[in-house]
Structures are given as C-alpha cells and as structure tokens.
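lol so apparently i was supposed to do this last week
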Amino acid sequence: MTEVPNIRQALLTGKHRLANLGDQATHECLILLQNVTQKTKVKLLAFDEELLEVEQYQRFIQLLERRAAGEPSAYIIEEKEFWSLPLKVTADVLIPRSDTELLVETALAVLANKQQANILDLGTGSGCIALALASELPQAQITACDRSPACLNIAQQNAKNLGLENISWHESDWFSALSVKPYDLIVSNPPYIAADDPDLASNVAEYEPTYALIAQDQGLADLNKIIQQAGDYLLEAGHLILEHGWQQAGQVQNALRQQGFSAIETRADLQGHERVSMAQYSSHVR
Ligand SMILES: C[S@@+](CC[C@H](N)C(=O)[O-])C[C@H]1O[C@@H](n2cnc3c(N)ncnc32)[C@H](O)[C@@H]1O
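anyway here it is w/ S-adenosylmethionine bound
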C-alpha cells in the first residue's frame, strides 16, 4: 500500500522540489494542494496534520512535476484570480497579471461620474479587464474583442460563470469589425514585447501564446495601431487607457501627442514601473 503524507509533509516535499522558485515555492505548492483537495489555503495551513488521500497525493505529485518543468500554475489548475474574480485560463490566453489591475483602477477613476459608459476592451484575452469593469459598473455597456476565437471562447465562459451579462464579444482585428464613435472609454493591454526582448522569461515564452505577447517594431506596432485609430471610435473628451512595457511610456506618450490626444498621463505599477498611460480625445486638435 502506498504511504501517504499529511499536508505538512506534502508541502515540504513540494517546497524542496520547487526550491528554484525561492520564497514563491510554498505559495505555488499551496495553489496545487488547494486544487487537489478543494480546501482553502487557510484550512490547509490550519489543519496541516491531516492526511491526504492516496489519489490526492498522487495527483499533487503529478501537478508538482509539471510546475517543476516550468509550466505556470495558472495553466496547471486552469484558473487565475484577477480583481478578486476567479477566471478560467487555458494555454490559449495570456495569464492575467496583477499589474493589469492598475489599468482597471485607472479606468474606474476616469469613469467615476459616468457609470453608464460605453467601453471598448481591445485584445480581451481571458476577458479579465472587461469582466473586472463589468463587475464594478453593472450599468456600463462593454464591447470586448480579440482576434483569437479561442480567447473569445474562454472569455465568454468566464462571463457566464460569473453571471456578467453587460458585455458583447466580437472577433475583430483591433477596430476592424467595430462601428465608429460610440465609446466613452477604450482600454487595451495589447502585445507590447519585442521579439528579442531579454526580459521575456523563457517559461513565459514557452507556455504563453506569442500572439498575446510579442509585437513588431520593438513591441510598439500594436500600441501605435490602436493610438492611430482610437480617435475615430472615441466620443468627444473620451479616454484611451493603454498598458505598455515599463520602458515604453515616452514613446507611447509621443504617439498620443502626435494623434492630438491631451491630458496625457502615465501611472506606475506596484514595482514603480511606468505601466499604464491615459489620454483624452478632442476632435479640435486633430
Ligand atoms: C497582452 S494580451 C492581453 C489579454 C488580456 N486583455 C489581459 O490583460 O490579460 C493581448 C491580447 O490581444 C490579442 N490580440 C493580438 N493581436 C490582436 C489584433 N490584431 N486584434 C485583436 N486582438 C489582438 C491577443 O489575442 C491577446 O488576447
């Protein structure tokens, strides 16, 4: 008969196997153990002398080996929390990053006095931004699009699981399938990494879809396309909010200025990296 450890021993085995992750190892093991036991983190830690079932331990070891090989835990358990919403993720979609919550915060600040806004989310992926905004602004009308039908499929499953209905989903190459001028706010976290960027961690490049990460022209091609066309889709005084690379703020600001945007501002993420730029559209200066 296979001997099974208790939760504490399983955590120790996992921590040892994922030693290369340093301080993150215990956190990652807990994510995997939560998945196999369906217990909360608090319960796992509070009752760590409880024995695992044989199947639970075997499954934990299988998941641990996938994590040790470099696969992100969000893909292993097919779930990632964003804006406190549990989202389904598969290898078709980018894993939502906590940095992107800054874009959501910025959007909510811009719409503080306009709860019924028309919002467009370009390159929705898992749907994380559109869903976070929909959960905060039930009266808003949100349009979310992506070029990838696989992404739209996951995003729509997420909307259904969360019971969020104020979003319409469209397959579109940026603005191509959309009608002009109805939006108070356009948000996007487009691909913005240069193909030869040394910061592109090998496990990210290996597991996450390159169509969600990499853009031509040193990572600026999609940002520039969106900035060039956004004015045709924004109402007067509407806002454009973009996530970008931490060294791209200057170039994004210049592109916004060239297209006649005003009130251009960049905000830094929790690491102090310039991550999100926002600007306001005015037809007079175009
Ligand atoms: C960086 S991911 C962002 C996903 C999600 N919004 C997030 O913040 O996690 C970029 C997304 O843009 C989509 N995308 C790439 N090129 C596109 C295009 N030409 N038109 C529309 N969507 C595109 C990708 O499929 C991907 O889902």
